[in-house]
């Protein structure tokens, strides 16, 4: 069975949206870990908000430069959980139909590598409740944005996690990897 791995950039005060604050921290160590995560994943899952942001950013990037990751993101199989998106324009994107839990359960049962998910909102909360998230990687950045939003997506989610790894980058970013218990 495929694993669903969530990878989320977060500030010290819990901000996850519009992570422009990550740019100064995405150095060699981060690129290596990101490449490891994408190298083990042949599919990507996202909610509508994440799709809207990524589908504009990645196609504009240079695919010939391997350091950008653009070739991966523009060609990997992408699944979007949305009830309003009907005609996705980003290459190799499919909108999940019907019940999200059933759709992701079916995706995980297919042959293949891991499924990577970016962002941490309602889609992740639903999948956590259903026991479908196998790992969560929080990339904790030494930044305060002053407008925490992570807790609003998790207001009805109760979960306990087991720490399975940490990486501390020289620039202060800590990647804490958890597995739901």
UniProtKB/TrEMBL annotation:
<dbReference type="InterPro" id="IPR002734">
    <property type="entry name" value="RibDG_C"/>
</dbReference>
<dbReference type="InterPro" id="IPR050765">
    <property type="entry name" value="Riboflavin_Biosynth_HTPR"/>
</dbReference>
<feature type="domain" description="Bacterial bifunctional deaminase-reductase C-terminal">
    <location>
        <begin position="3"/>
        <end position="174"/>
    </location>
</feature>
<protein>
    <submittedName>
        <fullName>Dihydrofolate reductase family protein</fullName>
    </submittedName>
</protein>
<dbReference type="InterPro" id="IPR024072">
    <property type="entry name" value="DHFR-like_dom_sf"/>
</dbReference>
<dbReference type="Pfam" id="PF01872">
    <property type="entry name" value="RibD_C"/>
</dbReference>
């Amino acid at each position: 069975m495929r694993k669903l791995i969530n990878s989320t950039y977060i500030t010290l005060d819990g901000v996850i949206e519009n992570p422009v604050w990550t740019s100064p921290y995405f150095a060699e160590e981060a690129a290596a870990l990101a490449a490891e995560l994408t190298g083990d994943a042949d599919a990507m899952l996202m909610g509508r908000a994440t799709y809207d942001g990524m589908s504009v950013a990645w196609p504009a990037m240079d695919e010939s430069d391997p350091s950008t990751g653009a070739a991966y993101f523009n060609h990997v199989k992408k699944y979007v959980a949305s009830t309003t998106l009907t005609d996705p324009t980003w290459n190799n994107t499919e909108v999940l139909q019907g019940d999200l839990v059933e759709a992701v359960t079916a995706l995980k049962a297919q042959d293949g590598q891991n499924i990577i998910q970016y962002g941490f909102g309602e889609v992740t909360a639903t999948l956590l409740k259903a026991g479908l998230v196998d790992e969560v990687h929080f990339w904790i950045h030494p930044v305060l944005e002053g407008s925490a939003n992570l807790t609003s997506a998790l207001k009805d989610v109760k979960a306990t996690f087991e720490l399975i790894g940490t990486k501390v980058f020289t620039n202060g970013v800590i990647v804490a990897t958890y597995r739901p218990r």
